[in-house]
Predict the structure.
Amino acid sequence: MESVILFGATELESLTAFEGAASLRELSIDGPRTLDLTAVAHIKRLRVLRLDGIRELRGTAALATATGLRELTLSAVTSIDSMDALRALRGVKVVIDGDELMSPGAA
């Protein structure tokens, strides 16, 4: 399983269900009310994470430990616990509602 797309995943609250997905490279999730990203560090091969329609995004600091992550796309996310955590990501293309987030020192 290299790619997973969950649409209408309103009951999903965290990424812990994907911790054992050793080959997962791309994950797209639409619809959770609240989503905690703390477990993202345990999805070792994850390269692309797309999140859509989430009211509250928590645990964004854990993204810094997701060493394989190269792209993070957020669409229609109402609340993010730490924009600083997103800005601090290095080597990760972060796109929020279609606009690329520039990290400090980026050209």
Remarks:
- The chain is about 5% helix and 30% strand.
